[in-house]
Sequence to fold (221 residues):
Amino acid sequence: MELPLAYILDATKDPQRSLAITAYQAETPTRYLFESALGERWDALEPAAKALHQTDDVTHFTGQASVERGKGWMARLIARVIGFPKAGDTVSLMVTKARKGAAERWVRRFGHDAFSSDLMPAPKPFHVRERFGAFTFEQSLPVEDGMMELKVERGWFLGVPMPRWMLPTSRAREFVRDGRFHFDVALETPLRWLPGSGLIVRYRGSLAPAQPDQASKARAP
Fold:
């Protein structure tokens, strides 16, 4: 049986009862994943960039993107395993972020295609880790002129460290233009000298907070 807090507190004040209960409430300021990772660099971000990285529960953002896909066999295989979206010039985009303690789950829906990842703190300052299924990558977060980059530095497959030559190349940046959040993410295969390697996917566009009617249609991760 569940009892409301008010009922319990009233019972502690009843002289006919001998309940030795002390109650108090405390509030702890929220520190977001990227705010904690960036430290003093957080203040260098524009308000629109900070807003995208401030999630207390579940947040939704909408926009449009252009998507380019690599044509090599290795690039196509990796894109299929991760679930990267198909190519398109003007693709509707919904990003749903759900906070899970100190971590966040991101679901990106490009039209009818969707893929997700889990972002979490990294031991090193100015770094985060991102997990795509069996793969986990640690990324550094340099910030310059209000623009944040995400650069892959380390990786693991099923918890086993990956050698540097097996790491994909990441060219990802977030910036604000005319008060709106923009992104440009490009991933390339490792072993770029092999036939079939090269670009895996590049998606770029902009996002803004979803309107209530748009958010109500999105599924929380």
Q: What stands out?
A: The two ends are 30 Å apart (CA to CA).
